Amino acid sequence: MKATVCELPNEYEELCKAWVGLVEHVANQASEMVILPEMPFFRWLPHTRDVSVGQWEEAVRSHKEWTGQLEELQPATVISTRPITEKGKRKNIGYIWEPNKGVLDVHVKYYLPDEPGFWEATWYERGKNEFLSVPTNHCKVGFLICTELWFNSHAREYGKQGVNVLVCPRCTPNPTTEKWIAGGQTAAVVSGAYCLSSNLTGRTSEGCDFAGRGWIIDPEGHVLGLTSSEQPFLTLDLDLKEADKAKKTYPRYVLD
Q1: Domains of the chain
Q2: What pLDDT digit, counting tens, does each position of 56-87 carry?
Q3: What is the model's pTM?
Q4: Do residues 73 and 26 lie in contact, with contact meaning Cβ atoms separated by under 8 Å?
């Protein structure tokens, strides 16, 4: 399976320019799966502790409008997260978009930080403590949205569910890049699955400083590639059978 990860700017005009490049890259590479960053289609609202319901609803509308543009990436499966309001409650939900199927909401983010720049628990509510694998047109995936990457029991459980790929849409800052890559390597080893992550990038007018550095990591924890400001899109051909083989080797086979 040819999979693409990326880093995308959070400022609207820069995002629109980067999107054109991403569409071209995906077409040229014949990508079959594309991972986007966490809530990429509106400015990062949890940078402030001051919750604005109006801004949230504007973000919901923006993400809904942008889902129409996901068709430009077809026939690839597209994976990301988006803000929603459900029964009056604000949530950050991971979704899968596929041609002829549209958007399938899969997993509401459960582990929410609450600190300067990332007042997520203040802005929206956590979902259920459910981490269930989901079949796509190409493979079985498991969601670990940003902070969820650090809770390795779920990576191990995804491995038991037979996932081929862990997807980690994220919004992480400088200078924490190396720590996050290490987390992705650990999750890959624990699950015996490829770990794919895309991130926001660049400085914003609100003072956010996002790290970029999307990654593709194999089931043994080897970093196969990273994005950068010079090369914001990365596509590699993944042998999904390697994830199946990894489930039978150390440390995956060790009993709980």
Answers
A1: 2-246 (3.60.110.10)
A2: 999 999 999 999 999 999 999 999 999 999 99
A3: 0.97
A4: yes
